[in-house]
Amino acid sequence: MTGGLVPRVTLVGAGPGDPELLTIKAVRAIRSATVLLVDDLVGEAVLRYARRSTRIVHVGKRGGCTSTPQAFIEKLMAAEALKGERVVRLKGGDPFVFGRGGEEVEHLRALGIEVDVVNGITSGLAAVTSLGVPLTHRDHAHGVIFVTGHAKEKDSALDWPTLAAAAAQGLTLVIYMGVSQAGHLQEGLLQGLGRATPVAVVQHASLPQQRHAIGALGDLTALIAREGLGSPAIIVVGDVLKGLASVSLVSGTVQAA
Questions:
Q1: Catalytic annotation on 77?
Q2: Is 123-250 in CATH node 3.30.950.10?
Q3: In the CATH scheme, what architecture does the domain 8-118 have?
Q4: For this structure, is 39 an active site residue?
């Protein structure tokens, strides 16, 4: 630590990838950084807001791929902040929505390092918006549940039948990191939802290479396999998808039914 300044780290949500979805506060934080720790899911175009002198460190975090250990990232953030660097941890989506932001805040504060958080648009919201539908609707969905299909431990996996029962009461399910577990979650959800329940899978939400498929819950795994969809992707389940094509696969825009 230099100059008597209190060490500080800023966790910044870079949004789903489209740089135009960054907040003004996020851009200001990125420009202020002397050290920028960047996740894999952050779009390259977002980095144009960093200064030329900023040291950019890529710390990949992507489901299903080899990732930088979380403990290493936390140690690196702390070490740079304690040296007096203006550290920004740049995360895809929002730091506090399946972004491990809570873990990082706890670690840094335990070391006496102050933490600021700048929210970003989470990919679950961007995914449904790209389809032209809402997360909630007075006629179709009275609430929304954000869940992850990738639990930290096997014995902490979600009870999908219970979630299906909640969804059946008029809630939209937005599932992060669920493609690799699609068969398991499909089986569980079908215990409380009908096979014809609308479902959508959106890969690379908000980016030019976005692809999505729309169909029925009973055909979820077949839909993913047939269209070759993979991570990063969001699975949406619920009646807010009614009115879209029964099966649709396009880039960027949705095809009407």
A1: no
A2: yes
A3: 3-Layer(aba) Sandwich (3.40)
A4: yes
